[in-house]
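User: Fold this one for me? It's ABC transmembrane type-1 domain-containing protein.
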Amino acid sequence: SCKEKQVKSKSSKLCTYFLYLKFRFATWRDKLMIVVGSLCALIHGSASPLMLLVYGMMTNTFVAYELEVQELKDPNKESQMTMFAYYYIGIGLGVLIVSYFQIVFWVSAAARQTHKIRKTYFRKVMQMEIGWFDCNSVGELNTRISE
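Assistant: Here's what I get for ABC transmembrane type-1 domain-containing protein.
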């Protein structure tokens, strides 16, 4: 039992270390963009179940409409359907806005980190001995920086 706790402790430390390595070039702004982008993705993902809930409420309105004959002349049904249409419009606009910000924040954070990685790599290459440039071609250097 004691060894299992040590193994779990080591594996959690290892996971934390690899997570640190993955985002070691990220600044606090990049991390903030990642968090906000992830929240936008979460909201975007919740739109489909929300639309199903609205659809279920709308279907229940139709079922109640068919079951009770005295409500056939109820003018309230049209206003209820208009309300459901507004719900769908609101969900659609919300998804449009949230998905835009989801993509913008994630792509911006990735571009900023990529720029920092390339700049760091270029600085390290410029500090190499001159013999390193004899062994490696310029095309290989360009390929490594662009990848």
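One thing worth pointing out: The chain has a mean pLDDT of 82.
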